[in-house]
């Protein structure tokens, strides 16, 4: 707290000093002293000027520091914006539909406003403390002995009249600014305190509404349906317009509140659309676009914008769990409308009619929930929709299931849809209206969301297959790979993700997601102690999730570079395979390091674990570690690569895949040989394709007839040139092992692809036989 009395005393002295009469401080002349004053301490005019200058600098810095900077003006702007948000929320609370969605949004926003107010109050207190520190600088001036001596000396004051006038001017301006800013800060603090009280009261009201909706499930809110006396809810009809205005204002506020996140989502969806269009344009330009029909694409062949919109809206639905009811239901309806465009001309007439019926029931349900007051009309309409929903789930839903990519989860979605509609009817009859409405909306959202997620999964798989095929075409590989088995492999992790998204949407609509999340967070973050080690279940779960994701990434990363298991052996890109192996190694190392960091294990405990692991390596894991280290050496040293034809011991074949522990080799007879990496480094390896993919082969033939060696040589060269499988860049070699009258034994050596050795030899024999026979010579081999 500012020491006001000392501050006033100091400046009263300054004012007195400035306006004091110029009189002599002594009436008589001083007595002359006989002793010398050479060595006495005296204060000069320069010292007095320095003291006055120091006081002026203190007042100048106090003026500058007490003025509001840009951060303070930004704070005042935030305070003003917070007031606008709070006014809108408080107004909406009085007139908007008290459904769970709106209440959840109000609760989330009020919590954030409460946090903002706390931060603003802290910032105001900090600025008040800074003003107090500035005032303390004036108090420190009293400790300046030179300045205080000057104030008391009425004679010397006369010499510094101008300086004291400037000092007084600085003091008055500083005092005025500090008083003004102190008042502004006090006013802002009073406003924040009042708002905190208003937010606290609003939170209590919202939490009470949420508690009524979710906990007291059998609490009677309205009369039993057979006891309602009203016939026409005129008030509800009259209030539709005002409710629409309120719901629109709440949705607009939320839209502005989430603008940054939604724009980020739109940006990434734009990148995705550009990425897809680039691949499609490349295939179309090079004449491969028609081959996409062989992949059974259902959505990407109908344009780009609509599938990308499905991806973006599906993410938006899951990422806006606490949006107001109007915003979220419009988002859902927009998603369903876009899905309808995708289904058009693809679904059968019966399936399409059933889909449109589901969409119509959902739209009516949303309108009744948002804009119609609770009464006989609304409750009866809900019951009719619930009955139609039950019939739909029992009879008509099968036509939708046949059109979807994922059919396994649709069974559970159907059971949930029928069960929630049945419970909604029961609660509606007995007056539990809010819970009934919530169950009805959740039933329809759960069913429509599983349809949307099924389409989303199919679109994602089509995007991945498009990337793989485009990359392979760029590498010159036109072969259509087994996309169905590859899709079955890729969809497994995505199904887990889609299931998680579906559960989140259902739990959020049932108003249990927050409690589930809190309970789960409490369970996962609870510290557990075993001996001297303290851990949480969350750290352990996160540890295994990161390792699982790292293994998935290293397993599937090759697909994004166009690599699949049925690779054409002559088109293997060995350099790319080496990069992929290094990438997989880096992904695994990064994953394990992140997993260890996420586990929260202290380094001293980790060193103990590594020591125990070292003992395990010495006792039984040395072969595992040997193979792992050998795999790393093979990756960087590259004595063999994927696609090489090698011989090791008694085994030979083509290298199919290289891992960190083992290497797979395809034998000529179709067997797959798995060799530990340690064996590859410890034994001699014959690599036929280390430099190139060509092998020198030989054919021994006998020629009979009236001819000469020169003629035979010309015939052989001409015949081999006609065989496309033979590499004529390296001249064939012809050797004569026996020559007699009319009979020649010839050894022919030529180069061919090592992957098609037998085929090349067979073709060469056939061409040589036909050529020599045409010349009238006898050919045998």
Q: How would the blueprint of this fold be written?
A:
Layout: H1 4-19, H2 45-66, H3 70-95, H4 100-140, H5 145-152, H6 161-214, H7 234-238, H8 240-257, H9 259-285, H10 305-319, H11 325-343, H12 349-371, H13 376-396, H14 398-401, H15 408-429, H16 433-474, H17 483-509, H18 513-525, E1 527-530, E2 533-536, H19 537-556, H20 574-599, H21 603-637, E3 645-648, E4 651-658, E5 662-666, E6 672-676, H22 677-682, E7 685-687, E8 694-704, H23 709-721, E9 726-727, E10 733-740, E11 743-753, H24 757-774, E12 778-780
Antiparallel strand pairs: 1-2, 3-4, 3-7, 4-5, 5-6, 8-11, 8-12, 9-11, 10-11
Task: Count all strands and give the number.
Answer: 12
User: How would you write the strand order of the largest sheet?
Assistant: 6-5-4-3-7
Largest sheet: 5 strands, antiparallel
Low-pLDDT segments, ≥5 res: 1-41, 231-238
CA-based shape: extended
What's the number of structural domains? 5
Number of helices: 24
- Give Rg in angstroms: 43 Å
Helix percent reads 55-70%
Helix and strand content put the structural class at alpha+beta
What distance separates the N and C termini? 113 Å
Summarize model confidence as the mean pLDDT: 78
Strand content: 5-15%
Main location: membrane
Signal peptide: 1-25
Transmembrane segments: 255-276, 299-319, 325-343, 355-375, 381-397, 409-430, 450-469, 494-513, 533-553, 581-600, 606-625
Pfam families: MS_channel_2nd (PF00924)
């Amino acid at each position: 707290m500012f020491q006001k009395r000392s501050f006033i005393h100091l400046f009263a002295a300054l004012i007195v000093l400035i306006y004091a009469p110029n009189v002599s401080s002594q009436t008589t002349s001083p007595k002359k002293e006989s002793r010398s004053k050479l060595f006495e301490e005296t204060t000069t005019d320069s010292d007095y000027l320095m003291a006055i200058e120091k006081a002026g600098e203190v007042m100048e810095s106090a003026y500058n520091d007490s003025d509001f900077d840009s951060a303070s003006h930004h704070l005042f702007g935030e305070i003003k914006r917070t007031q606008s948000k709070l006014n809108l929320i408080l107004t909406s609370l009085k007139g908007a539909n008290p459904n769970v969605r709106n209440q959840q949004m109000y609760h989330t926003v009020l919590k954030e406003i409460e946090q903002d107010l706390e931060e603003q109050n802290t910032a105001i207190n900090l600025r008040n403390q800074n003003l107090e520190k500035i005032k303390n600088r004036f108090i420190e001036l009293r400790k300046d002995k030179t300045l205080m001596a000057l104030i008391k000396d009425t004679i010397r004051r006369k010499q510094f009249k101008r300086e004291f006038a400037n000092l007084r001017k600085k003091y008055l301006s500083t005092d005025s600014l500090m008083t003004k800013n102190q008042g502004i800060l006090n006013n802002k603090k009073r406003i924040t305190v009042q708002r905190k009280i208003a937010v606290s009261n609003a939170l209590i009201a919202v939490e009470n509404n949420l508690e009524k909706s979710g906990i007291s499930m059998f609490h009677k809110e309205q009369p039993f349906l057979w006891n309602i006396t009203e016939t026409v809810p005129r008030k509800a009809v009259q209030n539709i317009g005002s409710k629409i205005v309120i719901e629109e204002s709440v949705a607009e506020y939320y839209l502005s509140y989430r603008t940054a996140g939604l724009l980020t989502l739109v940006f990434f969806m734009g990148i995705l659309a550009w990425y897809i269009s680039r691949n499609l344009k490349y295939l179309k330009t090079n004449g491969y676009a028609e081959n996409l029909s062989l992949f059974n694409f259902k959505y990407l062949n109908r344009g780009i914008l609509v599938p990308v919109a499905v991806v973006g809206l599906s993410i938006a639905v899951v990422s806006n769990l606490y949006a107001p009811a109007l915003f979220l239901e419009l988002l859902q309806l927009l998603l369903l409308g876009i899905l309808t465009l995708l289904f058009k001309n693809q679904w059968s007439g019966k399936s399409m009619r059933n889909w449109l019926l589901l969409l119509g029931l959902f739209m009516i349900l949303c309108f009744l929930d948002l804009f119609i007051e609770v009464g006989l009309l609304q409750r009866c309409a809900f019951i009719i929709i619930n009955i139609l929903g039950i019939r739909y789930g029992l009879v008509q839903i099968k036509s939708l299931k046949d059109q979807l990519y994922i059919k396994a989860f649709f069974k559970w979605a159907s059971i949930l849809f029928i069960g929630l509609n049945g419970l909604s009817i029961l609660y509606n009859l007995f007056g539990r209206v809010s819970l009934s409405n919530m169950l009805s909306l959740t039933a329809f959202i759960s069913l429509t969301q599983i349809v949307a997620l099924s389409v989303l999964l199919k679109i994602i798989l089509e995007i991945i297959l498009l990337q793989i095929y485009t990359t392979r075409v760029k590498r010159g590989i036109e072969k259509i790979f087994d996309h169905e088995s590859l899709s079955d492999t890729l969809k497994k992790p995505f199904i887990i993700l889609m299931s998680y998204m579906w559960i989140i949407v259902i739990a959020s609509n049932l108003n249990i997601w927050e409690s589930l999340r809190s309970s789960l967070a409490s369970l996962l973050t609870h510290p557990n102690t075993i001996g001297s080690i303290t851990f949480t279940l969350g750290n352990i779960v996160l540890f295994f999730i990161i390792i699982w994701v790292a293994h998935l990434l290293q397993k599937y990363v090759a697909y994004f570079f166009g690599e699949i298991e049925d690779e054409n052996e002559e088109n293997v890109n060995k350099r790319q395979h080496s990069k992929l192996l290094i990438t997989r190694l880096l992904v695994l190392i990064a994953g394990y390091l992140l997993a260890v960091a996420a586990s929260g294990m202290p380094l001293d405990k980790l060193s103990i674990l590594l020591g125990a692991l070292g003992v395990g390596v010495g006792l039984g894991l040395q072969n595992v570690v040997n193979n792992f280290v050998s795999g790393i050496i093979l990756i960087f040293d590259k004595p063999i690569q994927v696609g090489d034809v090698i011989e090791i011991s008694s085994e030979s074949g083509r290298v199919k895949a290289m891992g960190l522990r083992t290497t797979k080799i395809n034998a000529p007879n179709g067997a797959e040989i798995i060799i530990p990496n340690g064996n590859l480094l410890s034994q001699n390896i014959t690599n036929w394709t280390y430099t190139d993919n060509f092998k020198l082969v030989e054919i021994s033939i006998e020629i009979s007839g009236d001819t000469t060696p020169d003629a035979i040589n010309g015939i052989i060269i001409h015949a081999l040139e006609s065989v496309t499988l033979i590499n004529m860049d390296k001249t064939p070699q012809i050797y004569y092992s026996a020559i007699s009258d009319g009979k020649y034994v010839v050894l022919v050596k030529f180069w061919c692809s090592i992957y098609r050795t037998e085929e090349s030899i067979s073709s060469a024999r056939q061409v040589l036989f036909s050529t020599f026979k045409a010349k009238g010579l006898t050919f045998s081999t």
